[in-house]
Amino acid sequence: MYKYLISLFLLLPGVSSACSCLHVPLEQHVRDSEVIFVGVLISTKLVDLDPAVDKEWPYIEGVIKVETVLKGKVKETEIIKTGIGSSDCGILLTTARAYVIFTDNESGYVGSCDASGELPRYNEAEYISQLRGIINGEKP
């Protein structure tokens, strides 16, 4: 009986979704981004839109206090937008954590496919140094 139940569960379709990104070298992310900065997330909010009415899907909006500008021009605080999860490639945002942000336009959208994400403090200086080296054209 158990064999039949296990077989049944294996044959039933499941619902799943996942973010799918092509592997892109860090050098290309740096080259393609107009703005790169590191900062601390100071607040977040859910912007709950209706895709049937609005031109956008719901998203998370975060306010980041900028600490280090690596490329481009930014204000003291920047607003970013990211997906709410699942297959939209949004990044998990946790208040009071440090993030590195790569953007290529003024929309403020960031995601895991563009190399934006949380930056552990223990690795921050080394990662910033690596990014500066790429920006300055130094060979790794």
TrEMBL record:
Domain of life: Bacteria
Stretch forming the signal peptide: 1-18
Gene3D superfamilies: 2.40.50.120
Swiss-Prot/TrEMBL keywords: Signal
Name of the protein: Uncharacterized protein
Classification of source organism: Bacteria, Pseudomonadati, Pseudomonadota, Gammaproteobacteria, Cellvibrionales
